[in-house]
Amino acid sequence: MSDELWAWSATRLAAAIAAREVSAQEALTASFERIDAVNPTINAMVDVYRDEATAAAKATDDYLAAGFSLGPLGGVPVAIKDNTHSVGHPATNGIPAHADELSTADDPVVSHLRRGGANVIGRTNLPPWCWQWFSTNELFGTTLNPRNHDLTPGGSSGGAGAAVASGFVTIAQGNDIAGSIRYPAYANGVVGLRPTIGAVPGNDPSPEDKPLANQLFATQGPLARSVDDVRLAFEVMRGYSARDAVTVPAIDMPAGAKRVAVYRGTEIAPLNAAVSQALDASITALTAAGYVVEEIETDLFQQMFELEELLALQEFIQSGSSHLDEGGEILRNGLEGHRAVVEQFFGSGYTMTLGDYTQALARRGTVIRGLQALQERYPLILTPASAELPYLQDEDQHASLDRKREMVLAAWPMCTTPAVGFPGLVVPTDVVGAGVPLGVQLISRRFAENDLFTAGAALENVFGEVPVA
Known about the structure:
Blueprint: H1 10-18, H2 24-42, E1 45-48, H3 50-65, E2 77-81, H4 108-115, E3 119-124, E4 136-137, E5 141-142, H5 158-166, E6 171-176, H6 182-188, E7 191-194, H7 212-217, E8 219-224, H8 227-237, E9 259-262, H9 273-288, E10 292-295, H10 300-319, H11 321-346, H12 354-377, E11 380-384, H13 395-398, H14 401-410, E12 424-433, E13 436-443, H15 449-463
Parallel strand pairs: 2-3, 2-6, 9-10, 9-11
Antiparallel strand pairs: 1-3, 4-5, 6-8, 7-8, 7-12, 11-13, 12-13
Helix pairs in contact: 2-3, 5-6, 8-15, 10-11, 10-12, 11-14
């Protein structure tokens, strides 16, 4: 692995800057040089805050020279997603009509990153309105997967995953309502954390009322190349904000979980052979680390999948007409697979009624109790991150309807836990498929991220940290 500054971990870089072994300005220059060399090819960064970030790096170095200490990410370059607000810049969601709308304030998660000393250096690409596992839009074009240009970099935080995998930044912020952090982590071979709902404050200072699914299912979180860096970023990002309706002060469930349930989900979608191999390798690694690992059968994930399709996707399709119009053909094509899955679950021509919606909200509590009961015995659950290898680039735009339905079903691990607000961590293994180190997903109890980090580190100790693409 390269020992260039852009290839360092955030943990190492922050320590070196704090000790004045490396300056924040040197770290930033290394990031800029890496972006200039690689971004013209992969298009992960859609805006680089050159003047602003340069001034912030100099201020950091001046602050250290004066004898002051920094936050945990002092001087470390990070990127934010292009649906996240940073003052004086747009947050376009990939929509041309919003390209010139400048944000008047930082979102809470950006404020927390800055408070932790991070240098926010720019924004990363995404699909229109963030409802796809791809990262192509009419405003900025297509982001390529740096490990294999024929594959999607994932979405909706695909630019974030590609930027981390390429060494543009050590940490990138994303958000996740149906896999938008975890799937790009899987597709790019990096680590991605979807925290518990409420642990990290949300985005969007818009005066518009946010749909209930966005309040209860969507969360901010980090992508990085190591579990330690994800842990560090999470500690900086999390905490209460009065601007978020569900955020809470930092909560840590007692750590120390040592029992793991394995759920393969083959009744939902068949597993690719390499995906199954990655899962088996993870079972072996966790067992060697002292975990008790047992295979289970359960219908809870099918129930969570149905709730996600009803309460998040159907709500958006039926109430987000203006967003659908702005997203154009890219978004409409991307949602066709979800429509097909809903019809498979609930019947041809299905349209959600108010009664269905309220019943689904009530069932959500029952499913949460069921998952909590399962986690009394198995505090950790190991699943695939996807039943398939990362999809082909922009496959959702031209595939048949049957294939689009298969793609949504294959992404069931992404479309289950958001509906109930539980955290998940995707960690790469040493099993490579189509050039990508294939990841697996760990799910913990709510506010038990420390159990995720411990188990994730156990996997990383066996498989090693992934190299820069």
